[in-house]
Amino acid sequence: MKNYTFYLFAFLVLCTGSAFGQAEEVKTILAQKSITITAVPVNAEIFHIRNIGSGEDKLGTGTAQLKLDKDEKYIIEVRREGYQPVRRIYMRQKNGSEQDKIELLYRVVDINASPSDAKIFVDNVERGNSYYKAYVPKGQSITVDVKKPGFLTLTKVYYNKEGQDEPEASHLFKLEDRLLSLKTVPIDASITVDGKKYGEGNTDIVIKKNTCVSVTVERLGFVGVSATYCNKDNEKVPPMTDELVLNDRTAQFNTQPDDAKIIVDGKEVGKGAYLARVPRGKCVEVAIERSGYARERYELCNKPDYSQPESSYPIKLTEDEAYTKSEEGGDKANRNFSVEVNPAIPAVEAWKKITSIIQTFFDEIENSDFTTSYLRTNWVASEKLNESKKRVDPQIIRTRVIISSGGSTPLRYNVKIQSERSKITCNEGTNTPPVNKDDCFETFPRILRKYNDLIQEIQRRLQ
Question: Which domains does the chain show, CATH number per domain?
Fold first, then answer.
């Protein structure tokens, strides 16, 4: 019965060894009447485990002397906090060992994780949630990661090597800092966190406990967007993932000359430089104009299937052909110019001379009446001006002459050269408005060179 009890107890000892995870096989040592037990490390405690339910006795720390009775078997356990205990079974036998060294080879770390559903990984192998007893073999190390989606992963390496810090017996991995996985559209947009450059495109952002972060996403040619995320109690939990999309486009206009007007959708917004904004799904029209230069027009669209705007537009205006092909009108353009007729020239002859002169400049006279001294030509349109220039609206200059009575004593005639320029707003694509569409023309204070001598010719022939 005595031997049966021992073997049952020994069996339980072997079975309970599995509770130590990395437990080595319990060895049986044959010893003489007494044996000296040495523990490594030297501050490990040595215990004698009595029969089941009878408790245990501490034999010493670092070293102990054990006396053995014949036919008795002794279970010894060496322990130290942070180590896996080691057991031995000793039996008395003639010529047995006099000494035994018991070395604790495995370090033990109690891993606790919070929140309770955080996952514990040891050397990239998942070991469970909330708690795990980790073992570190002698001469080796293990890496512990505690993870939960939406939180910053905590990592710690435990060593069981000489020259390295001893691992703590237990450790609480408390996940508190949040982790936001941020995506941007476009993918190469720049991310700034609290005013500091953080990265580009898809980036993980850490939000520490009890703090907020301000995130700005920017890219050349786009209107930037911002968002604030907080990791504070009683506030909305930051999302695990988010996407910040740059929808609205921008286009920087810089002009030469630097005092040119910049007009957006018909409204002047600045001179020389302006950052135009193009909302998603919209188009805007940007016009650049300055007196003496050809007006340029740009349609910027931020729509699918449209060419997207450039980020910048350096504009160098070219001379307007309406100016290069005309001269300053002075008192001639759009004003009545009085011509006094030589008294020696009869009125009928004077009218004939005027009609003849007008016909050398204009092919058609719309209205002519000697009795009322009134003559008006048809409008004559110039060629399309600036037509060959890219992004420049073509236009025409229309001209006509009106002769009216300036008095009969002495005989005088008023000569008026009307000069008008087509309005850009009436253009249909590259087509200028019809020459007789009055509401599409505006007064032009210059005269095409071909008409510049008309008044001088009338003066010369009538005076």
Answer: 2-103 (2.60.40), 107-174 (no CATH), 178-245 (2.60.40), 249-318 (2.60.40.1120), 325-462 (3.30.530)
